[in-house]
Every structure is written in structure tokens, then in C-alpha cells.
Amino acid sequence: MVRESKSTHSSPTFCVRKPNGKWRMVHALNKLHAATIPVSTPIPRKDVLQNNMAGCTILSALDMVDGYYQLLMRESDIPLMAVSTPSGMLWEWLVMPQGLSNTPVTFNRLVTQLFRPRRQFVQTYFDDIFVHSRASEGNTAVEAHLAHLREVLLCMRENRLYANINKCIFGAEEIPKDLRKWLGLANYLHKYSANYAKMARALTNLLKKDAV
């Protein structure tokens, strides 16, 4: 993800402690941010995503492993991402690191464009991919869902995108804690959505221990 650099640019590197006691490497990119033109890309609205999944009876959630690191930097931009370390070494990122101002919206734009042709059964929110299905055209919900998952996974393979299998859930046999937080954030928008409780039922039911 990095290589030794001879760039004339440099941003300092340091570590901060995370709530779980582990350390996270960060870079002071203030000067780079000041010279960066912000990318204008719409952020997906949680209430719209939830509306699109309403009525589906089986869902899967895919979590992109180290999502931002899957974005390759343009070769001409790599020297700008040179970072110095306490040991005196200079390294430059070959992928988009966390902390870069345009990284989240750039990643969101990528996954949105990739899965736009499949938006009837795929919703994306940054590094989360939600696949939702229902019985249709003579196929059971499970049959439809397997076909949808296969198409999503093939798209990811073709574009060299990788999921964290430990954080993925298939067929809604259990639900990761992120969905609970997601629903909590979406809940405050319920007054703007007609029949919110009905639309959210498929997702809230997944919080039950016997969800299938």
C-alpha cells in the first residue's frame, strides 16, 4: 500500500489511541486539505435506501474490507501523499488513506456507480452493500436472493473489490451491530416517510434472535 518516496512533499505521521486501546496511524494533512478542491458527490439518504428495501423478505449485508485502501491513487497524485515517520523515512501512499478529505465521497461514488444498474436489489452506503430480495417471477425469495448475490459478487470480483467475510451476513440469519446503529440514525427521519414502521419492519425484525 506504500512505497519509499523521494517526494518534495511531506506530511507528518503520528498515532492516536482508539477507544479499544489499540493505536491508529494518522497523518497531519492540513496543508494538503487547504489546497484540495472538495469533490461534490451526493451522500445516500438513509430514508431513501430504507424505502427501496421495503417489502423485501430476505437481506444480506456485505462490508468492504478496509474500503478506502481498495482505491488506487492516480500516479501523478502519489507524491502528494508522501508522509514522514519518526524514524526519518519518507513513504508515499499508493492507495487512498483514511483522513484524506475526498476519500469518503470518492469511495461512495465508486460503489454507487458500480451498482447503479442493480439498484432494484442493491443499496450502497459507503463501504456497506445491502442486497435485498423478494419472491418474484415464479422464483422464491431465496432463489431470487441467490441470483442477486451471485451478480453482486461477480461485479465485485470483476472490479477487484473485497469484502470482510467476518462482518458480512448472508440470508439475514443474524445481524451485525452496525444495522442497529443504522436504524437508529434512520429513525429520526420517520416523520418524513409514509408508513415508516411497515417499511422498516423487514430490517427491525432482523434484530430478533430467531430472525431467518
Summarize the structure.
The chain has six helices and eight strands; from the N terminus they run E-E-E-H-H-E-E-E-H-E-E-H-H-H. It is an alpha+beta fold and 212 residues long.
Quickly list its features.
212 residues; alpha+beta; 3-stranded antiparallel sheet; 5-stranded mixed sheet
Strand and helix layout:
Blueprint: E1 2-4, E2 11-17, E3 23-27, H1 30-34, H2 46-53, E4 58-63, E5 82-84, E6 90-93, H3 103-115, E7 122-125, E8 128-133, H4 141-158, H5 177-187, H6 196-204
Parallel strand pairs: 2-5
Antiparallel strand pairs: 1-6, 2-3, 4-8, 5-6, 7-8
Structure in words:
This protein is of the alpha+beta class and 212 residues long. 30% of the residues lie in helices and 18% in strands. It contains six helices and eight strands. It has helices at 30-34, 46-53, 103-115, 141-158, 177-187, 196-204; strands at 2-4, 11-17, 23-27, 58-63, 82-84, 90-93, 122-125, 128-133. A five-stranded mixed beta sheet has the order 1-6-5-2-3. The chain has a three-stranded antiparallel beta sheet with strand order 4-8-7, with helices on both faces. The chain is elongated. The model has no long low-confidence stretch (mean pLDDT 83).
